């Protein structure tokens, strides 16, 4: 792209009124709000009309330092205005003087990393101006004076608008996409339109080349067999990889809002493979993808047909009264509730419990809190509480919006503007393989966890005909959280560990891993990546106090967890020669048919 011709330096426009001094902040804010000053500083050339219009539009929403229903301190508003005017004026001056070092320096944002953004002075200015505007809007949103939920919602809404408004998202403003259009003689545009039409048909943005993967062929390939099924789950038993195994079997309950094979993507990062290699007789729940036939299933159905049914089947197949159990994400919430139900019935089937990035105490739900309030939950109850499906596609799109630049706009640019196929990536294939939820189950879950946090209130809720009291769970528990998790924040996971008050002091082991919700969890020792923190003894009240005394260790947390689990193995026995037993014969090879059902 050619560089834009330098504007004549002598060209100028009459200076607009400057922003009033901060010393008279209240009066200055009122003046700035009623008569917004076009950004200019001293003898710096005045900004072009479009940027003045943008400033006036922003300032016009801030009458007396207020937005509809929201308030911003006049002093804070004036400070933001003055900083913005100064920095935008400097940016404009550097654009006029294109030999300036800043104007020639790389733009520190991956969206503008392509050299084409630097070759065009106008594109470089547009990108830098956008980043400055984004910073101003984020600062404005952060300055809103309101209750915490309202502030969080404002910040989220503003961040969504900012991400969508990036010049990289528009063909007319993206020099890299324009360059590709010229180089391919229009073929990239034709390919992009085809990609767009294909995705409109799917109802989602493609994040990977889905044709490159097939469940059971190159993902979810660990050897095993389905040994039990009902209308909601298939129970998979995996082939042992050691001559002897721990006597007590190990049951893994994954989240029902995703498919279980995140734990068995590829042999080199398979948690399933790791578990059997450590000498566990492993059983994994594979949730059915609900359709109309399952549209009236409730939370109680998920407990009874899910972990409770699976526990009984594992006990019968293994001949063991006690098992070791693990719940991942929502699967953790479900298995804890199920164990509390069984405890109320006088049963204690688990020798140990492991929770991975799971919530039991929902007092802190992180960014997801912005989506849940009484009005939203009541709307879901009215629409779905008596039957219907919460589409998996909608849930997937919601989670993608939490990281819009990475999981939405990145693919808009790649797939549509540049006409490329998305990369081949097993994790993103799994991420796009969404799962529906039955409306009654989903509505109960929203109200009693995210909205009212009822599980930690003894006997507040009744499940399967008995009151749920987490104090009845008295088994040793290992709780893992990920430090950069934006779905289950690590302090929330820590609070959930402390909510298991029936477990004796020192028998709840909390471990904190690096990275996020998935990358922190799926971190095999063979990669020798990242690090983790752990400590022994009773858990302090504050998560920060725990972290202050925790020991940092290199590599994967999996080994630490397996050493802890080995205490509850119940000795060793010869590995099973086959799958299931006479009452539970092998029904079909792993991964089974339920996991292959599409939403």
Walkthrough of the structure:
The chain is α/β, with parallel strands linked by helices. The protein is 40% helix and 13% strand. It contains 20 helices and 20 strands. Helix 12 links the parallel strand 9 and strand 10 (350-356). The two termini are 44 Å apart. The model is unreliable at 1-67 (pLDDT under 50).
Give a nutshell description of this structure.
40% of the residues lie in helices and 13% in strands. By secondary structure, it is an alpha/beta fold.
Alpha-carbon distance between the two ends: 44 Å
Number of alpha- plus pi-helical segments = 20
Global structural class:
alpha/beta
Give the uncertain stretches in residue-range form.
1-67
Tally of strands: 20
Net shape: globular
Strand order in the largest sheet: 18-17-16-15-10-9-7-8-5-4-20
| Cα radius of gyration in angstroms | 28 Å
Helix content: 25-40%
Mean pLDDT: 88
Strand fraction: 5-15%
Q: How would a textbook summarize the main sheet?
A: 11 strands, mixed
């Amino acid at each position: 792209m050619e560089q834009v011709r330098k504007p004549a330096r002598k060209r100028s426009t009459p200076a607009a009124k400057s922003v009033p001094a901060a010393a008279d902040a209240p009066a200055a804010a009122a003046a700035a709000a009623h008569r917004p000053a076009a950004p200019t500083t001293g003898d710096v050339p005045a900004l072009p009309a479009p940027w003045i219009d943008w400033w006036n539009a922003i300032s016009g929403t801030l009458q007396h330092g207020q937005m509809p229903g929201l308030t911003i301190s006049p002093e804070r508003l004036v400070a933001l205005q003055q900083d913005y005017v100064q920095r935008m004026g400097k940016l404009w001056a550097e654009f006029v003087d294109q030999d300036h070092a800043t104007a020639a320096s790389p733009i520190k944002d991956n969206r503008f990393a392509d050299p084409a953004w630097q070759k065009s002075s106008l594109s470089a200015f547009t990108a830098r101006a956008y980043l400055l505007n984004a910073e101003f809007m984020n600062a404005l949103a952060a300055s809103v004076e309101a209750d915490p939920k309202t502030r969080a919602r404002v910040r989220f809404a503003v961040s969504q608008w900012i991400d969508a408004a990036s010049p990289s998202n528009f063909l007319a403003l993206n020099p890299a996409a324009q360059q590709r259009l010229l180089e391919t003689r229009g073929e990239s545009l034709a390919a992009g339109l085809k990609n767009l039409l294909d995705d409109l048909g799917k109802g989602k943005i493609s994040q990977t080349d889905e044709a490159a993967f097939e469940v059971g062929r190159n993902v979810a390939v660990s050897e095993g067999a389905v040994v039990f099924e009902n209308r909601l789950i298939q129970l998979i038993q995996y082939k042992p990889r050691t001559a002897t195994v721990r006597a007590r079997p190990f049951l893994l309950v994954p989240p029902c809002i995703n498919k279980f094979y995140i734990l068995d993507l590829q042999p080199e990062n398979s948690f399933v493979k790791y578990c059997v290699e450590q000498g566990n007789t492993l059983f994994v729940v594979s949730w059915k993808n609900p359709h109309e036939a399952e549209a009236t299933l409730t939370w109680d159905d998920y407990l009874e047909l899910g972990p409770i049914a699976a526990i009984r089947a594992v006990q019968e197949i293994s001949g063991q009264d006690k098992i070791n159990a693990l719940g991942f994400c929502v699967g953790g919430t479900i298995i804890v509730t199920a164990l509390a139900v069984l405890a109320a019935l006088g049963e204690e089937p688990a020798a140990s419990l492991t929770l991975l990035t799971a919530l039991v105490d929902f007092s802190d739900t992180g960014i997801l809190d912005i989506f849940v309030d009484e009005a939203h939950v009541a709307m879901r109850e009215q629409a779905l509480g008596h039957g219907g499906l919460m589409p998996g596609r909608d849930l997937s799109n919601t989670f993608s919006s939490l990281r819009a630049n990475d999981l939405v706009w990145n693919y808009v640019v790649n797939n549509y503007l540049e006409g490329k196929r998305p990369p081949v990536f097993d994790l993103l294939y799994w991420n796009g393989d969404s799962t529906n939820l039955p409306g009654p189950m989903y509505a109960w879950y929203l109200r009693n966890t995210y909205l009212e946090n009822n599980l930690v209130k003894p006997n507040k809720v009744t499940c399967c005909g008995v009151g749920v009291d987490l104090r009845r769970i008295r088994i040793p528990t290992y709780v893992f959280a990920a430090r950069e998790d934006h779905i289950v924040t690590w302090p929330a996971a820590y609070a959930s560990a402390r909510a298991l008050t029936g477990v004796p002091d020192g028998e709840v082991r909390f471990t904190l891993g690096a990275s996020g919700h998935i990358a922190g969890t799926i971190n095999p020792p063979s990669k020798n990546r990242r690090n983790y923190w752990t400590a022994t003894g009773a858990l302090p009240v504050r998560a920060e106090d725990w972290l202050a005394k925790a020991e940092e260790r290199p590599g994967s947390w999996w080994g630490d967890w397996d050493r802890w689990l080995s205490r509850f193995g119940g000795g060793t026995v010869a590995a099973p020669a086959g799958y299931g037993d006479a009452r539970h014969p092998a029904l079909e090879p792993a991964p089974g048919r339920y996991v292959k059902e599409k939403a």
